[in-house]
Amino acid sequence: MKLKTKLYIGFGTIVIILLVISTIVLYTLSLQKDKMENIVRNNYERVSLAHNLKYNVQTKARIVREYFIHDEDELPTFEEETIKDLIQESHMLFSHLKQLITPEDELKNIVNELEQLNVKHNANIEAALQFVKTGNHKSAKEIILVDNSEVRMSLIHGIDQLTDNEEVAMDLVLDEALQTYQFTLVLFAILISISLLLVLFITASVIRSFSISLNSVRNVMMNIPKQSFAKIPRIETNINNEFDDVAKAYNEMADALEEYANNEKALKNSLQEENWVKTKYAELATSFQGTHKLSVFSDTFITKIAHFVEAKYGVFYFKEQKRFRRTSSYAGNKVDDLGELLIHEGEGLVGQCALDQQIIQIDQLPNGYIETKSGLGRAKPTALIILPIKFEGDVLGVLELAKFEPFTPLQCRLLEQVCSSIGPNLDRIQYHMEIERLLSDSQALTEELQAQSEELQQQQEELRTINEDLYRENLRADEKTKELELIKSDLEQKNREVVLSSKYKTEFLANMSHELRTPLNSMLILSEILAEDNDANLSSKQIEYARTIHTSGKDLLNLINDILDLSKVESGKLDVFPEEIEINEIKAFVNRQFLPIARSKDLEFDIILDKDTPHIIVSDDQRVKQILKNLLSNAFKFTNKGKVTLHMKAAKENSPSKIIFTVTDTGIGIPKNKLQDIFEAFSQVDGTTSRKYGGTGLGLSISKELSQLLGGFIEVSSEEGRGSQFSLHLPNLIEEKLVPDNKFVAVTVDQDEAQVASTDGITEGDLSEIEELKNKTVLLVDDDMRNIFALTSALEKEKMNVLFAENGIEALSILDKTEIDIVLMDIMMPKMNGFEAMEQIRQNDKLKEIPIIALTAKAMKTDRQKCISAGASDYISKPLKIEQLLSVMKVWLYK
After folding, report:
1. Which helix (H) or strand (E) holds 562?
2. pLDDT tens string 473-503
3. Helix, strand, coil shares of the chain as percentages rounded to 5?
4. What is the pLDDT of residues 549-565, one digit of tens each?
5. Non-local CB neighbours of 592 within 8 Å, separated by 6+ positions
6. Which strands sit side by side in the sheet containing 801-805, from one edge to the other?
7. How far apart, in whole angstroms, are the C-alpha atoms of residue 397 and residue 395?
8. Sheet strands side by side (includes 713-719)
9. Which segments of 796-890 are extended strands (E)?
10. Does the predicted model carry a pTM greater than 0.70?
């Protein structure tokens, strides 16, 4: 099965499971919503109507009773209009109550009976009212205090019974909703576990397939024939896996190919240059055969040689009686050619060349030195070369050529060879009349030239054969190049697939973080409120249950954060912020965090600080504390008796590290064969379902990655049954000055200790003196009813007035009609999300200064800056800590 097919099948299965999970969650939410709406619309409203009826009956009884407690001669004015309004109100309340009861509802008979009692009660009051009008106060008093008393008590008792029935019904619905929620959590955990196992299986399968594929590529590369390549890229060999073999084999092949290609190229260039020079020389020499006149020789020579070197101007000078006469020119001007130009040795550049018998070459001629023309225009050459033509130590002629660009080395080589070789030709022509007596020597020279010509032709044939062989070699090289390009394309495709997989993983973790943090927020808030038991109506067992729920929720939040941290480290997106860290502050942090744990487990806890320990190091404060917290948490977790020690000391002078933190415990220890496995994600010494110590196995994996991110490393040594020792080695990082994301942020909260930080001149003492939140109006904008319920409960404890909206549109409507002191804004909402809502609010001049605190379950890198840019005053990620939220609200209300 192909790797792509495995990926499609695996991730398709994961998508299906996610769809199933989403369907179940949506279905559960729908059920919860329906039940909550049923409680609010039916039971709650009926209870409210029942309370209003009871209040109505009691109010009527109070008014009548207060009237008749006076003596007849002291009777006050009877509140007739008020009584009539109350009687009319009672009829309306019963009418509304009957509308909320369906025909098949068991409460129908009870309501009818109560309505009849109410009619009787109202009739008695109206009868008493008639007696009062006629002055028969005794009869009216008897009806009210005797006859109507029993009716009123029955009516109130019936209303109380109706209220009790509705409250029992609401409790049943709430219990059923809680059971549905718990069932959904269990099913969700099972499906998530299946998804994780499936991801691990797919990952192992893909890795195995990828390794097999790489070995196949290696075998193919080892069998590739060595061909001609100019430059081949290398594969790095700094990893210890299958890539090392592939890289070595590939690099060996590349070395051989490049060496062969360079030699071949050098030979080819040399042969081509030699062939071109010899061919041109042979062509030039052949053109001179049979030439006995100087004019024919000079014209042919200057024309041929100018063409060979692409010259645009040329002159040939022939020596006559120690002077040099211009005998022919190439592309010369007519005015210059009218008369003979005679030059003595040492006169001008031409005479100096003849005198010195040296080549004169100028690549940058001065402006106006020489000009060449055509029918379309004229131009000025920029390069000049003057060569002496020597024979037997004497200069017989001078060649002068000019071009628009510099002469190439190959052209200069041809000119040198030609000028050094045609001296005999000039000598032969110069002494043609005398050659008759030297005819035998001339014939011998001609035969020698013919032999050279034949030799050149033979060399040309050999070069042609070599060129054909080189052409075939080039064709084979092109084929190998195409094969390598196909291999490169395949590797690039696999790399793109790996990058896409990493992207999907990151998006999945971000979305799962949001989906998990949203219900976790309401669970933590409500469990914290229950555990406080402010109404003192819970048993100790129930309080313990609430604290257990809160602790479990915090553990789940820590697990989510660990998974996100591990994902960021693996993808290389976890940022490091170096700063100066005081060692004493680290000591205080560790002591504050773990001394209570040591006391609760009855363990000794020592912090040892050597004298040579540096007082300050430069590193990422948050990440250093996170590593130490993980190491110490493990030490206390696996130690039941004895002690735990943190030893801080300076590293050795030649070591790249600056400081060493060593955590030693007397716990259960680690087997030698497990020392490396414990740093793998989700790996534990005892990974069975019956293990004694729980946990996810992420702590040490994240600590290892973070230490490497900080430029250090972790060492471990352990003896099973006697304890373990973990050493964190850290160097100094380059310190950078960090600029805060926004000046508008008032407070931030340390997630470990949940204590306010002070900014903008507000101190912790100021916060303690800030007036309570009582009577302040807060607008809570969130589409999740669980969060609304949880936060409303928490804020109403502070005597705040709480209004809520389920999206940005509703929030804008409320803000337009109602005076709001502060807004708590969720981000992920339908219709109009939090970003859009905050932007709309800030565009309103009346609302520009209202504090807006963004609340979101998405805690990715850029979310905070997005919220601030959209108009938020501050930012808090879910799950919320009530103490943190209240502190932030007080600060902004104080400002």
Report:
1. helix 540-571
2. 778 878 878 877 888 787 778 777 766 666 6
3. 60, 15, 25
4. 777 777 677 667 666 66
5. 753
6. 801-805, 777-781, 822-826, 852-856, 874-877
7. 6
8. 604-609, 643-650, 659-665, 723-730, 713-719
9. 801-805, 822-826, 852-856, 874-877
10. no
